[in-house]
Structures are given as structure tokens and as C-alpha cells.
Amino acid sequence: MSSRNNCQRRLDVRASPWDLRSFNGRWHYYAWITDPRLTLIGSWTIDDATKLLELYEREKEPSGTTPELIGYAKRLHEGCVHPETGCRIPRMVRFSSVPIVQTALTAAMVTFCRSMPQVWFWQLVHNGYHAYVNQANGNGTAPRTPVGQAVALGSATVVASVVAVPFKATLSRALCHSRLNVCHHRFCTLIPLTVVMLSQAVSVPLSRQYELQHGVEVHNEEGERFGASKAAAALGISQTAISRMILFAPSMLLVPLMTMTLQRQPFLRRSKFIIPAIQVVVSSALFTLMVPLSLALFSPTARLDLETLKKFDPEIYESVMRSTQRNGFLSKPIPCTHVYFSKGL
Predict the structure, then answer these.
(1) pLDDT tens profile 158-172
(2) Considering the domain boundaries, does residue 337 fall inside one?
């Protein structure tokens, strides 16, 4: 271990390099930890980064450790390790991997969805993957079992697919096969967006249903915990569902419009590969850009006002009041107006 220079300012490894209270700060932060290149990082490297951060907090890091190395270790840890459980997030469901996997899924769906069985298969694969992403990156304080997780994952996958495929077929028959050509041009391009929003509205709460069943831990600004709140879980899941809808919206809206335009070009229609290839590339680029943007819509630490807590979780509210009284605020206005919790990603 190296000797310490008392004049050297040490980094706070628990603080974000950006202000997470602002959208701009959150966007930079999530772009930092969801870089697709982090998909290539192996488990041993992530474990070494976590150990280095622990040693640095205790001021026992190896000699020659630079601030740049600590910053890189923090980036790996926060991008690949769940903040509540401390466990590594499986490689393929980290948000750094989502654009890569989504590109492969888009290519498969564009290429192989030629019959109804193929449509059902790839919808199940697509919805199953994103349900796993939702589950692996959810709040880690809610109790869960392997069986409960499997039930949540399976129900989210199946129900989202059962909702999406027939709904898309019904809309296509009602709009795209109508005699009114204007319907085809104006409304058919909205079908993928409508379907994916509906499937995400179903998938997110089902894949994280144990949070709704048991609640998530809430605390005050000082970190004092009050118990598990189901109202907080519902708020966090609703914010996550909105975030997922925004994540898919550009590719689901712009790619169909682009495809309709390209199909009017005779030289592009001669090849059956050019338009699908363009669809995959554009969809991948949009998805990569939207991952940090969609995550930045809401703060990773959400808050719930006490009035809502009192209405839906009176026991937790009473715990907050008892804590307030213990801190000597009996005759003063209540200083705690909100409780805070991790909403998950």
C-alpha cells in the first residue's frame, strides 16, 4: 500500500460524477454506464473493479492507483452491478447490452417473420428478453424467490405476446385493409408504436409483480428506513413503464414511416435485402441513442409524498411519524414531506 498524500483530494466513490437531479446530468450519467462497449467486460474484471472501490473507500488501495482508474472502476461497477443486491447483472440484460441484443432481435423479426407461427415465436422471444431486462434491473429490496421470478417472467412474456399479436392483427385488418387508402398511409405506420406501448404497459408490472405484492423499501433523506411500501412500488413501476415506451417510440414510429418511403423507390424494391438492412441499421442507431435518454426521464431515486403514503400504506406512514417524534419535532411542522426509494431502471 502506498503512503497517503494528505493534500490529495480523494474521490467520493458513492457520489455520481453528474448531478442526478437534472435531466442533463442523468443523461450524461446513463450514457456513461450504458456504453455498448461495456458488454465486452468480463465478470472477473467487474469483480476486480468492485474490490478496488471497496479498498479505496477504506483507504487501502494498491500503490499507483490513479483517479482515472477509480473512475473506470466506478463506471464498471455502476453499469454492471445491481445497486441494491450487490450482484452482477447478467451480461445480456445490462443496459449496455440492450441495443446489441435489440439489433439482433430486430434483424430476426424483419427476416424471419413470414408466417403466423414465426410471428408468435419471435414475439415471445422479444417480449421474454425485455421482461428479463425489466426484472433484472428492478428494485432489489423487494423479497423474491426463484419460483416467483420465473412466474413473473413467464407471465409477462406470455401475456404481453397474447396482447400484442392479436391486437396488431386486428388493427391491421381494420385499417390497412380498408378501402380508404388514406387510412393506410396515415394510420398503419402507427400500429407498431401502439402495439409496443401496449405490450410494455403489460410487461413491466408483470415482470416486477413481486414488488407490487411485497412493496419496496422507503427511507428519508438521511437514509433511515421505514419499511416496504406498495404505493412506492406502483409509482416506480409506472415510471419505468413510461420510460420503456419512450425507449421504443422513435424506432417504432420513424422506421415504419421510413420503410413506406423507401418502398416507393423502384431501385430499392428490386432487392429483398436492402430495405430490411436499412431498417435494422436505423432501428439500432435510434435504440442506442434512446437508452440513456429514456432512462434519464426520471431520477433513479424516486420520491413519494406523505399524503399518498398515508392513504395507501398507513403503517409505513405511522412509522415515519414515530421517527419524526423521536427526532424531537413534536411541536414543529413536520420536516419530512416525502419518502424516497429506488425505482429501478
Answers:
(1) 998 888 888 777 777
(2) no
